[in-house]
Design brief:
The chain has about 190 residues and is of the alpha+beta class. It is built from 5 helices and 2 strands. It has helices spanning about 25-40, 45-50, 70-80, 90-100, 155-160, and strands at about 175-180, 185-190. Strands 1-2 form a two-stranded antiparallel sheet. Strand 1 and strand 2 (about 185-190) form a beta hairpin.
């Protein structure tokens, strides 16, 4: 059975109103649209992403902060209503405080996109990934520890169809220790290995 998030139609009185004389019905519809997208009680982003096969839990929608890419726009629009009813403001502020205070940043200043696991980069969402190019997929020797396995919906949607092998590779200054579930193991035997 598919889980569906129910968004109540009874908007709290302290949710923002839009007042334009002569356009009351349009403004009521606009208010409902904002309320339906505000999602005060939906799952947090990380919980939403961690659905079956680490695939987002559609058709449920996440509430509060989402991927880092959207912080600039969503922070203001989700905190602006400041709805006091039913503790909504406190919950929303707590989610944003936690999210903004725990964004991962490396020593070079790269802030992770927090968009879910990816075979291309575990802390981000590189686009385009090497597998999007025509004429090749790059080289992937293991999917260990990454989302989905080959043959799963997420694996089929976001991965090359098979792992690579040593065919076509030439090692200089290195010896082949074989491929296993962790990848291709090499031992460097020279200082200028290629």
């Amino acid at each position: 059975m598919t889980e569906v998030l129910h968004i109540p139609d009874d908007i709290p009185d302290d949710f923002p109103h839009f007042l334009v004389p002569g356009h009351e019905d349009d403004m009521a519809a606009l208010r409902m649209l904002f309320w339906k997208h505000f999602l005060p009680d939906g799952p947090a982003w990380d919980d939403w992403l961690n659905g079956p096969d680490l695939f987002p839990r559609y058709p449920i929608l996440p509430s509060g902060p989402k991927t880092t890419l959207w912080d600039e726009w969503l922070c203001a629009s989700m905190l602006w209503p400041a709805v006091e009813s039913n503790g909504i403001r406190e919950r929303m502020q707590a989610r944003w405080r936690e999210s903004l205070g725990t964004r991962a940043m490396d020593s070079a200043g790269y802030v992770t996109t927090n968009n879910g696991a990816s075979y291309a980069h575990l802390l981000g969402w590189p686009f385009p990934a090497w597998s999007h190019g025509s004429g090749g997929y790059g080289w992937h020797f293991s999917f260990k520890g990454q989302l989905g396995e080959l043959g799963t919906p997420n694996g089929m949607a976001y991965r090359p169809p098979r792992l690579c092998n040593q065919d076509g590779w030439q090692l200089n200054g290195a010896s082949d220790q074989g491929i296993d579930g962790s990848g291709w193991h090499l031992t460097l035997t020279g200082s200028d290995a290629t």
